[in-house]
Specification:
Number of strands: 7
Helix content: 10-25%
Strand order of the largest sheet: 5-4-3-7-6
Strand content: 25-35%
Number of helices: 2
Largest sheet: 5 strands, mixed
Structural class: alpha+beta
Distance between the termini: 36 Å
Mean pLDDT: 82
Order of helices and strands: EEEEEEHEH
Oligomer: single chain
């Protein structure tokens, strides 16, 4: 298994934001597309510095994969920033885990693609109600 480039993670919070706009949903975002160094918890019981890139986001790592505490991330990120006591890295809501510890489903076949699942333009149009081209 290989951790691919991850620019951001979007977690849905509400399918419909209001009766006036039932087609719009609400989500929270974890953005890795910033040039900085963050301290990720590693499965070996320690924090390690990991550099992220403004173009690629979280870079590939042949030996690690990203583990998420989805419920914890949603609970933290739905709070206004000024009410958060800590961040998702220090709270160990995002962990870089050894990929050898994961056991893939034997019925799955491996396939790789560099194509995005959905373009940012499509996401922005749907969520912000903007007419973008």
């Amino acid at each position: 298994m290989c951790l691919g480039y991850i620019r951001a993670i979007y977690l849905p919070v509400a399918y419909s934001v209001s009766k006036d706009h039932p087609e719009l949903c609400s989500f929270v975002q974890v953005n890795f597309a910033l040039s900085r160094t963050v301290k990720f918890w590693h499965g070996e019981g320690q924090f390690k510095d990991v550099k992220t890139d403004h173009v690629l986001g979280l870079k590939k790592d042949v030996y690690r994969t990203l583990a998420l505490d989805v419920t914890g991330l949603i609970e933290l990120l739905t709070l206004p920033r000024q009410l958060r006591r800590d961040n998702c890295y220090n709270l160990k809501l995002l962990i870089l885990q050894q990929s050898t510890r994961l056991k893939p489903d034997p019925g799955l076949s491996k396939s790789y693609s560099d194509r995005p699942d959905v373009s940012w333009l499509t996401v922005a149009k749907g969520n912000y109600g903007l007419n973008l081209t």
